[in-house]
């Protein structure tokens, strides 16, 4: 499959250029929009100031609620699914500009960061309309410094590449709220439970049980982002947890917050 390159000039939105290899684009996307697989010559920091999106790369799926942002290296194919209306703020960086920065090697792989209050305000300040080159340069460098301190893989679902393991993962992702026994999945994909368990560990660096929990919590986050009135009790039941405390504990293990904290109801 040929992946299309999307030049910055083709992106619709409010565009700001610093004139020094950094570009900024503000976009608004409605729930349900999908930006099909593409790549850019520039690296980018993608942040939804409001709303939730999912970024998919060959490595896996990165769930990006409003308190996360995702770093996408140059020439990395990726797609974006909008799970709830988003106000997207994206910073693009020419490779020559990045190469001049300290710790530039840290930008070679994709990752999600937890957005601190400082990083949030820094990104918003870059889009506030003030035409001050010196201020913009300071803010951009501050944003990159904050990235080093905030890497967080809690909302990442690694995707295996081995065919049997990938088929099993796709079955779970097709119904993350279901009760998936590894023995049943193994038979479905033509292998043994022992082999499938080993494959999940080697391909995703997570046990099968932990990987399934990550998938269930991602489904919970998606539902919380899309349904404002969903109850935690109903959500716990839908996801197969025996009780709300059990669900809240699992949710906190993955995200660092309880479901109600995540949804902004506390």
UniProtKB/TrEMBL annotation:
Protein's recorded name? Transcriptional regulator, AraC family
Provide the HTH araC/xylS-type domain boundaries.
Answer: 166-265
Keyword NAD (UniProt): no
Q: Which PROSITE patterns match?
A: HTH_ARAC_FAMILY_1, HTH_ARAC_FAMILY_2
Membrane-spanning parts: none
Pfam families, per database record: AraC_binding, HTH_18
Keyword DNA-binding appears in the UniProt entry: yes
Its lineage reads: Bacteria, Pseudomonadati, Pseudomonadota, Alphaproteobacteria, Hyphomicrobiales
